[in-house]
Structure formats: structure tokens, C-alpha cells
Design goal:
This protein has a domain of 206 residues: Rossmann fold. Helices cover 31% and strands 16% of the residues. The protein has nine helices and twelve strands. The strands form two sheets. It has a ten-stranded mixed β-sheet, with helices on both faces. The protein has a two-stranded antiparallel ribbon with strand order 9-12. Strand 7, helix 4 and strand 8 form a beta-alpha-beta unit. It is globular and about 55 Å long.
């Protein structure tokens, strides 16, 4: 056990890799509200966490974030498909920086963060204590089992940055597959989590996202496509959670089967998504906030 400025780090052999980061000032347990757990990593996972935290703050008692499981791209023992997934496009220093930001962002909110293996009895006990009504996954590198995705009564939902409805992009390299298929645009899909990776029933699809440069070619780095397609995730995540709260206001939890994200997103966001991609990785794609979390 070691300590940092705002959290204590626990390690145990049963984690297999990674650690458990417990905030020194944990948030109090909520007596009401939809309990949400995130399995998320990369900058898009941090963005989703921040957007849901804004929703939680604006509508206290409606939702309650209870825990974060994330990739550990620093621990060499971690089995998160590091070389296959977009993490391979980051330097070791960049991976460390993103991981540290996830841990700090969550623990600053009083949320515990787990970065070890999730298909273990050790984590299942943590998950049982988090007791989620809903599970949201976004850029998470481990395959999860039915113990995790079947237990939340309001469902388990994965955000995947490819056109799964067109049979394109399932698996760990959605951006490469979009390019291999000659796509000029792609989409963000939210689907229910099942035993098979990226084949669960589709709940909603974002508007088309232009993935080409102005000259019609593709960006040099797929990180540009990661940034652009996943920029829709915060807006879609807030809308999904809003729909879940609307369906789960009574005593019988219900799952969401369909959301018309394309019809709900405002024209200005669609216009931004339709603009040419860029090669500059310092230029981030930032969309307008969902109306529910605008100040």
C-alpha cells in the first residue's frame, strides 16, 4: 500500500496487474439515483466521465457514479491488447500521462479506480460493492464476462467508434478497418454488451463523421480519427443516461433499446462532424455540450 496526494494505492496478487486507487475523500453513498459504473480509458473515457459528472452535479439524486475500471497501459503485465489497440499510437510517456489523468480526475471526484484484471473474484467483489444499475464501456481493453454485463438491471452498453451496423470495424482496430474499407465517413455506435465482442444489439448511432482530410486522403495517424469519432461520446453518453433515468424512475429497472442520436443532435454539431479531419494531433475536436449540462 502506498499513498499519493489524494488517493491510496492498493496492490494484490489476485489483481494480476495494475492497482486499486482509493480516494482519501470518498464520496458518500447515495440513497437514490441511477448507479453507474464506467469501464473506460483513453481521453474519450475521461471526457465521458467528466460529462456524466456534470450531469450528476446539475441533477443531484438522479444519477450516482460509483466506480471506474480502466486500462493500465503502463504495467507490462496488463492484458489489454496494447499493441493492437490505439494505445500503440501513443508513446510510453503519453500513455502514462493519460492514465494518470484518468486516475486523478476520478479520485478528485471521490471515485475509486481499478486498473487490474476484471474477470477475477477479487474484482467481482469490488464490482458487487459498486452495485451498478448500469454499466457504460468506452475504449476498454478487456473482454468482460456475463457476471459483469448481466448484473446491472438497466443494462450494459459499449461505445464503439465504427460503423458496426455496416459490418465494419468490430474488434480492436476500428479505424484501420474503416480505412481498409475505403470509408469516407464513420460513426459512433452504442450497443448492448454480450459475450461476443462488438456484436450486441445496437442501441443508437451517431451522425456521419468525416474521417478524411480536405484532399480526400486519410490522416497520417489514426489517433486523429480516434479523437474525432469519439468526440461524440460525451453528448451521446449524457443522452443515454438521461434516457435510462427516464425509464428507471419507478421500481422496475428497464433497459434502453433505441435512441435516435442522429435526429436528436443539433445541426451545428453535425456540421462540425462533417468538416474535414486534420493531421495536427494538438487540435482537438470539441463539440457543444449536451443541453442538459450546459451552464
Amino acid at each position: 500500500m502506498t499513498s499519493a496526494d489524494n488517493y491510496t494505492i492498493y496492490k494484490h496478487p489476485d489483481m494480476r496487474w495494475g492497482a486499486f486507487y482509493q480516494p482519501l475523500k470518498p464520496r458518500p453513498a447515495a440513497s437514490k439515483g441511477l448507479r453507474i459504473v464506467l469501464f473506460a480509458s483513453c481521453e474519450c473515457g475521461i471526457m465521458l466521465l467528466e460529462h456524466l459528472a456534470l450531469l450528476e452535479k446539475k441533477f443531484p439524486g438522479t444519477i450516482h457514479l460509483t466506480g471506474i475500471a480502466t486500462d493500465d497501459p503502463v504495467d507490462a503485465a496488463a492484458r489489454i491488447s496494447l499493441k493492437k489497440r490505439v494505445w500503440s499510437q501513443f508513446s510510453a510517456e503519453e500513455r502514462r500521462s493519460v492514465f494518470d489523468r484518468m486516475v486523478k480526475t476520478a479520485t478528485d471526484m471521490g471515485l475509486p479506480v481499478y486498473s487490474g484484471a476484471v474477470k477475477t473474484d477479487y474484482f467481482r467483489e469490488i464490482y458487487r460493492q459498486w452495485n451498478p444499475d448500469a454499466l457504460l464501456m468506452f475504449c476498454f481493453g478487456q473482454k468482460i464476462d456475463a457476471v459483469l454485463y448481466d448484473s446491472p438491471p438497466a443494462g450494459a452498453y459499449n461505445f464503439h467508434p465504427s460503423s458496426l451496423h455496416k459490418q465494419i470495424g468490430a474488434g480492436s482496430q476500428p479505424f484501420h478497418k474503416a480505412i481498409e474499407n475505403g470509408q469516407k465517413s464513420s460513426q459512433m455506435v452504442i450497443h448492448k454488451v454480450t459475450e461476443q465482442i462488438d456484436v450486441g444489439p445496437i442501441v443508437g448511432i451517431s451522425p456521419e463523421v468525416n474521417i478524411c482530410l480536405a484532399d480526400g486522403s486519410y490522416p497520417v495517424s489514426v489517433r486523429s480519427l480516434l479523437d474525432k469519432i469519439t468526440s461524440t461520446g460525451g453528448w451521446m453518453g449524457v443522452e443515454l443516461v438521461h434516457a435510462l433515468c427516464s425509464r428507471n424512475s419507478g421500481s422496475h429497472p428497464a433497459q434502453i433499446d433505441f435512441i435516435d442520436f442522429d435526429g436528436l443532435m443539433p445541426p451545428e454539431i453535425k456540421h462540425t462532424l462533417g468538416q474535414a479531419a486534420v493531421n495536427d494531433l494538438n487540435e482537438k475536436y470539441i463539440l457543444a455540450l449536451h443541453p442538459l449540462i450546459q451552464s
